[in-house]
Amino acid sequence: MMTVSKYFTAAVTGPISLLKGLSVTLKYFFNPKKIVTEQYPENRATLKMHERFRGRVQLIHDEHGRHTCSACGICERACPNSSINVLVTKNIAGKRVLGKYLYRLDTCTQCGFCVESCPFGCLGMTHDFEMSSTDRQTLNMVLNKSEGPG
Where are the domains of the chain? Predict the structure, then answer.
């Protein structure tokens, strides 16, 4: 049960917090030079995502299309919901190499554990944010461009 003093305290502090919130809104209303809202569809060409934004996972390739993934599978084990599958194959010399790097965006939470756990720095997060699709198969991707070390 609420005491009388708590009731009157809440009755006074409630409108004060409401006025504080409205003052922020009114400042932006009467000073439109300082815009804080991104006008998304209109500014698509100039929109820059924040540096720490996490989009989807990408396997980093150089200008020749080579990657440094050794197919160790640490990123696969670090993924909390099995969105990554590293399929290993062997080259002519019998050495383990990356066959396919499968990534399922539909189950990925963009947590970044795979990127942090990779000892070779092969993975990164893109700044893509328009990734919705009506076809679930488009969200299953093969990230490596070629088999083997590049």
Answer: 1-37, 57-142
pLDDT digit string (tens) for the chain, length 150 residues: 568 888 888 888 989 999 998 988 888 888 877 766 777 888 888 888 888 889 899 999 888 888 889 899 999 999 999 999 999 999 888 888 999 999 999 999 999 999 999 999 999 999 888 888 899 899 999 998 776 665
Dist. CA 47–CA 132, nearest whole Å: 18
Q: What are phi and psi of 77, to 5 degrees?
A: -70, -30
Count each helix (H run) and each strand (E run) in the chain, helices first: 3, 5
The structure's pTM equals 0.69
Assigned CATH for 57-142: 3.30.70.3270
Beta bridge partners of 89: 97
